[in-house]
Design a protein that fits this description.
The structure is a single chain. The protein has 315 residues and is mostly helical. The chain is built from 15 helices and no strands. It has a domain of 181 residues: MetI-like (MetI-like fold, Orthogonal Bundle), CATH 1.10.3720.10. It is 77% helix and 0% strand. Helix 1 runs antiparallel to helix 15.
Amino acid sequence: MRAEAVNQRPSMSRSFRRRQRLRLLFLLPMLVEFAVVFVYPLFNNVRMSLLRYDIAAFVSGRAPFVGFENYVNILGNRLMEPTVINTVVFTVVSILFQFVIGMLLALLFKRRFAGAQLLRTLLLIPWLLPIIVSATTFRWMFDYTNGIINQFLLDLHLITHPLSWLITPQLAMVSVIITNIWIGIPFNMVLLYGGLVAIPDEYYEAASIDGASGPQSFWYITVPALREVMMIVLMLGLIYTLKVFDVIMVLTGGGPADSTQILSTWTYSLSFRSLSFGQGAAAGNLLIVISLVFAVIYLRFSWTSLTGARSGGGR
């Protein structure tokens, strides 16, 4: 018996190794795609940011190594400060209104009423449409001559003459923020609604018996129960909003006078308008680092929440 067991071990070991190689073979297409689509472009972007890669280098194929000169140049660029301020304003205001409106809509649909499912489906349209389609639609709506927004405000006598939404610096930022808010509301609503329906109705019934008002029930029951969902929604919204590009490019192109320029559009402008590919790569790497920081925070929070839920379930 012992001899048979000893003879079976090598065959079992070979079979195990064969299964492991087969599993790796199935993973190979994904690993190749990851390397081609993500690793190589990221490596090339980092390499380019360390070179003086301009139009002359693009033609000649020779780009001298300059170290961190591109990073120093973009940090000292006159557009760096206003671009960072625009990025913060655009991100914070967009996330705030997307979250608040999404929460209000989620609370509305938590109350069952006739036509709720149809209305909820219609509100998903901004999320389902391609962003370029949504941005183009808002570009028409904000048009100075034929835009429906100006006509609507004129009919309500809120303004006395049409507003130049997309060519006035202050109004241009308002326009891109409104568009981005409209696009992001369904995402917030869907996730928050999913968290709301998971809260047992018995909690609210018990609170009502104890004499709690609606705001008190929201603050002491809904908010604690939705804390993890809200953190995930806010963190994902932050990551998505930081890399918004097409909305601004379709509406204003970063103008007028760079008033709607954020880090993502500035990266494009440096590379393909100023033709300073090295500085554009450096600005892109800064945006990648910022996004990675928040991505790591999100993953750490998600992991903490998951392990906490597992340990709670175990008890």
